[in-house]
Specification:
Layout lengths: L27 E6 L2 E8 L4 E4 L14 E5 L12 E10 L14 E5 L26 E6 L16 E8 L1 H12 L11 E5 L15 E6 L2 E11 L9 E5 L4 H10 L34 H4 L5
Antiparallel strand pairs: 1-2, 1-4, 2-3, 3-6, 4-5, 5-6, 7-8, 7-10, 8-9, 9-12, 10-11, 11-12
InterPro entries: Peptidase_S1_PA, Peptidase_S1_PA_chymotrypsin, Peptidase_S1A, Trypsin_dom, TRYPSIN_HIS, TRYPSIN_SER
Pfam family, one: Trypsin
Protein name: Peptidase S1 domain-containing protein
Amino acid sequence: VSTVCGKPKVVGKVYGGQNAEAGQWPWQASVLYKSLHLCGAVLIDTHWLVSAAHCFFNKSRDLENYRVLLGNTQLYQQTQHTQKMSVNRIITHPDFEKFHPFGSDIAMLQLHLPVNFTSYIVPICLPFPDMQLLSNASCWITGWGMLTEDVSLTPPFNLQEGKVILIENMYCNILYKQSIGNSNIHSVHKDMVCAGDFTTGKSICKGDSGGPLVCYHHSSWVLVGLASWGLDCRHPAYPSIYTRVPYFANWINETKRLTPLPDPASTPLVTGSESQHLRAAGSPGPCTALIPTQTWLLLPF
């Protein structure tokens, strides 16, 4: 994995907010729930992906309901490059939302069979725990989420990309407090990273949850964040908040080390103790406005 990670074989000419080229972001995956796109996810090796814990809140524990789609740029248009994989385990972080909203918003998905790396399916490089995220670094976000709060992605559902910069948490909190008051309910904490683009307004939106925030570092793309939450997509001037992956690098590596690989001859496990925390604040479906409009600004994407 370390020799191929973060090195796509397809390098397109990229501009913020446009369709991504096939194979340009080969670690991008879609988590399908009952055959529909639920959230983004990121391939990290032959058996594992990471995503956002809140994607699995109030969802079935029956792993037959889940599939992972790899190698696709157009979401529901499978090609010879597509690999559709069964899920063997879903493990959410034990501290998810234990200390603050959207805290430890990270989950790991173990595949039942190993994925084959191709020109269109390549894992992302994981950061070291002590990796320093440089403010104003140029990074990229990708996903199949909504284009704005009111505009959905339309067929052929092409993967979208946008260039963003990392923003210091302190500055991000100042921006958010100006918008939503002095409440600490939705503060940006040390396990989160803030990113956006004040000139183009690129941000994540509903359906992008769990997708990657990647930065180019020492000749490879490195996973810096996972799409987590933010203000609604009508406010493009505000940055979005991502799970800070370096903060959880040790947990990811330890989970991989302690979790046995599945027996290919067996059927996928029904998640047991690992998924007792499957109560993350899951992605709302279309038109799921269950709370007053002013609070909708803070619903997960």
